[in-house]
Amino acid sequence: MLFKSIVRLAPLLLIALNLPASAADKVQETPQFRACMDNVDLSAMKNSQWYACFVEELTRQDKVLNAEYRALQARIPAESKEPLVKGQRAWIGAREAWCRFEQSLPNAPGGEVNYQACLLDQTIAQTNKLKDVF
């Protein structure tokens, strides 16, 4: 009984402490992406279909990242704005380099699909990192 009461109060405690509440608050792949991936015809040009799903989702997630970046800029002190810009630019370069590396690996499905999947994963992770500041 005590455990159930603590579990029910946990979200309120997290709000009071200004901590991220749960994985549910994290940015994740959209239902549109999941539906796209679920509808891939595995018998016909699946790599092209996967690629299209990743490109569409990356477009959606870039918008989420940019909105979170602007929101973070609005809530940080003025002296932190330049380091944020520099950090974000460095992250973009690092993301590109890392994803090109993943593209070069002989892992299935390979090539451009691996590159797009990496860009998507890195973008979602960065968005969540920005959300966790303050």
Give your account of this protein's structure.
- The structure is a single chain.
- With 134 residues, the chain is an all-alpha fold.
- The protein has one domain: Substrate Binding Domain Of Dnak, Chain:A, Domain 2, CATH 1.20.1270.
- The protein is 74% helix and 0% strand.
- It has 5 helices and no strands.
- The longest helix is centred in the middle third of the chain and has 30 residues, at 46-75.
- The protein is elongated, with a radius of gyration of 19 Å.
Please sum up the structure shown.
By secondary structure, the chain is an all-alpha fold. The chain has helices spanning 2-17, 31-38, 46-75, 81-104, 111-131.
Helix tally equals 5
- Fraction of residues in H or I helices: over 70%
CATH topology: Substrate Binding Domain Of Dnak, Chain:A, Domain 2
Strand percentage:
under 5%
What is the average of the pLDDT values? 84
Say what oligomer this is: single chain
User: Biggest β-sheet: count, sense, barrel?
Assistant: none
CATH class value = Mainly Alpha
Shape annotation: elongated
If classified by CATH, what would the architecture be? Up-down Bundle
Order of helices and strands: HHHHH
Distance between the termini: 34 Å
* Structural class by sheet pairing and helices: mainly alpha
Give the beta-strand count.
0
